[in-house]
Amino acid sequence: MENLILQLKNQIIEVLNLEDMTAEDIDAEAPLFGDGLGLDSIDALELIVLLEREYGIKLSNPAEGKQIFKSISSIAYFVSKNRKK
Amino acid sequence: MITLAHIRITPSETWLNGKVVSNSNINGIYREFIGDYPKFFKMDSLCKLGFIAAELILKGQTPELKENASIILFNRNGSLITDRNYQMTIADDHFFPSPALFVYTLANIVTGEIAIRHKIYGESSFYVLPHQDDEMINDVVNKAYLTSNPSFILTGWVDYDDDDNYVADIKLVTK
Predict the structure, then answer these.
(1) Does A56 touch chain B (CB under 8 A)?
(2) Nearest-by-CA chain B residue for A40
(3) Chain A residues within 8 A of B104 when measuring between CB atoms
(4) pLDDT tens digit string along B109-138?
(5) How does pLDDT run across A29-80, given as a tens digit for each residue?
(6) C-alpha span between B86 and B108 (Å, rounded)
(7) CATH of domain B2-174
(8) B19-22 and B124-128: which strand pairing?
(9) Residue A14's closest chain B neighbor by CA?
(10) What gap in Å lies between CA B60 and CA A72, rounded to an integer?
(11) Where are the domains of chain B?
């Protein structure tokens, strides 16, 4: 799980253009939206695309998103259970 | 029309009110003079260019004056550089479009980015012209005063062709 969390951090830094930020700067338990990284709705769409492109996961139920994208840890847990690649 | 301030940004030099203030590229100018707006890095090149020009030229303007200001910008290439980048993301049969790129496939988004940052609530518009036609630009800016009474207008040319060819030539003007 630690490797997956690190991989997700680096992928998120890349797709969201979080320049000047490294994986060490991101707390895996911190909220991604609002406080914490302060991501917005467009970033949420990028995360959905990231899960599909990198892990073959299609989010069929948008209502699940709030729980899945709560933190890097929650994304990692979801990916580990549902990844197709 | 009275010019309150003028900025010109090219890949090699940034001039503010007739003086060279930087020789950095766009990201370098952001780090030199701004540095407190992480959303900058998510913007496309045109928005970054317009954003840093607005940051430098609006320094010293009060929130009260900015609230009632207008933004009228012009260029030749529209959002072509981002349109191309976005097109590349959807060229493959199994494409994964990028929402973060897609939102910048309109040139007038730069006026929104500036308005959000500076809480400018006056009218804003963006025109695509065949070339930098100062007569046409002045005509459009003058007409803005027929329908509203902005405290000042942030106006000028902001055009991004590629990383070696871009220019922001922007003024703050008032009646």
Answers:
(1) no
(2) B39
(3) none
(4) 999 999 999 999 999 999 999 999 999 999
(5) 999 987 777 788 899 999 999 999 999 999 888 788 889 999 999 999 999 9
(6) 17
(7) 3.40.47.10
(8) unpaired
(9) B42
(10) 40
(11) 2-174
